[in-house]
Every structure is written in structure tokens, then in C-alpha cells.
Design brief:
This protein is an alpha+beta fold and 156 residues long. It has one domain: Gcn5-related N-acetyltransferase (GNAT) (Aminopeptidase, 3-Layer(aba) Sandwich). It has five helices and eight strands; from the N terminus they run βαααββββαβαββ. A four-stranded antiparallel β-sheet has the order 1-2-3-5, sandwiched between helices. A hairpin with a 2-residue loop joins strand 7 and strand 8. It binds coenzyme A (COA). Coenzyme A (COA) binds next to helix 1, strand 5, helix 4, strand 6 and helix 5.
Length: 156
């Protein structure tokens, strides 16, 4: 596995990882109705790709010959990590930890002093191991469902 900046052809791969991570992995901590509400309506691939490029996305790619996208994370100019998703096929091998390491490295290079995120119940321990602390629990409304999550931060 290696981590590199997002490229335009990664749109479909990152979207697939996003959908599978929610449908399969997040189902361990949320109900089926919550998972479907989180996914929402099917995403338009072009809009998805444009958003990935805008927020500086980093992609974890399997080694050749597969070279599939197995995970991704993003970082906006204010140090906010909006998305961290890993394929269920690559779970629990440190892919998310490596992505968060890269995000922190990139943030320091850009002069960002603090990272923040809204972590899902599944992701909280992963962020904690990467040095984030819980600021507080939150509930977010998605399509009629209430989803628990945590506001978390890490000083750099
Ligand atoms: C959270 C997530 C990004 C972690 O990816 P990962 O590459 O497996 O994470 P790492 O290998 O670095 O760390 C593994 C830890 O992740 C959590 N985790 C990963 N897969 C899990 C699963 N199927 N069930 C429960 N916890 C899981 C556990 O805390 C695990 O630690 P453990 O193996 O000691 O129990 C991934 O599980 C995912 O995409 N989840 C669904 C979407 C989501 O919640 N994204 C975060 C939005 S803020």
C-alpha cells in the first residue's frame, strides 16, 4: 500500500470505497436505516470527483498489479478532516492510520496548527490512536435518522 494525492481517475474508486465502507463496515455500529440515511441519494460521479479534488484528498492504493483504491482521507485549508474511509477488504491493516499520518504531515507543511473532525463511532478509536482527543459527543440528523458521532481535535 502507498499513499499519494488524489487524481481525477480516482473518482469512481473513492466513491466505491465510501459506499462500501458505510454499507458494510459502519453497519457494525449503526442500524441499517442509519446507514442508508448516511449514504443518502446516489452520488453524481463528476460532483463527487470535483469535491475530492477541492478538499485535497489523499488516496491509499494497493500495490501493483491490483493498484486499487483501498482508502482515502481529506484535509481542507482549515485543518478539517471531513472524510476517512477504507474498503472493507482492507480493514484493520493500518490503512486509516497511515492516511491520518499523511494528512498530519501535509497539514504541517501547509502551516496548519490544529486538525479537527467529526468521527463516527467506528472511527473514534482510529482518530484517538492518531492523537485526536474527543471534544464532545454530537448527534447529526441525516434523512430522518439521528446518528451519534464525536467532535475531535488534534493539535499539531
Ligand atoms: C474507520 C475506518 C476508516 C478505519 O479503517 P482501517 O484502515 O480499518 O483502520 P486501521 O486499520 O487504521 O485501525 C483499525 C481500527 O479501526 C476500527 N475498525 C476497523 N474495521 C472495523 C470493523 N469492521 N468493525 C469495527 N471496528 C473496525 C477498530 O477500532 C480497529 O481497531 P482494532 O482492529 O484494534 O479493533 C474504516 O473502518 C471505515 O471506513 N469505516 C466506515 C466509515 C467510517 O466510519 N468512516 C469514518 C467517518 S468519520
Amino acid at each position: 500500500m502507498h499513499i499519494r494525492p488524489y487524481r481525477t481517475p480516482d473518482a469512481a474508486g473513492t466513491l466505491r470505497v465510501f459506499e462500501r465502507a458505510i454499507r458494510e463496515t459502519a453497519l457494525s455500529h449503526y442500524t441499517a436505516a442509519q446507514v442508508e440515511a448516511w449514504l443518502g441519494a446516489p452520488r453524481d460521479l463528476d460532483a463527487w470527483g470535483a469535491e475530492r479534488a477541492r478538499v485535497h484528498t489523499y488516496v491509499a492504493e494497493a500495490e501493483p498489479p491490483e493498484s486499487d483504491v483501498i482508502g482515502f482521507a481529506d484535509l481542507d485549508d482549515g485543518g478539517y478532516v471531513d472524510r476517512l474511509f477504507v474498503s472493507p477488504d482492507a480493514a484493520r491493516r493500518g490503512v486509516a492510520a497511515a492516511l491520518l499520518g499523511r494528512v498530519a504531515e501535509e497539514a504541517r507543511l501547509r502551516g496548519i496548527r490544529r486538525l479537527s473532525t467529526h468521527a463516527s463511532l467506528v472511527a473514534r478509536p482510529v482518530f484517538e490512536r492518531a492523537g485526536f482527543v474527543v471534544v464532545g459527543p454530537e448527534t447529526v440528523a441525516r434523512g430522518g435518522e439521528q446518528l451519534a458521532r464525536f467532535r475531535m481535535e488534534r493539535a499539531l
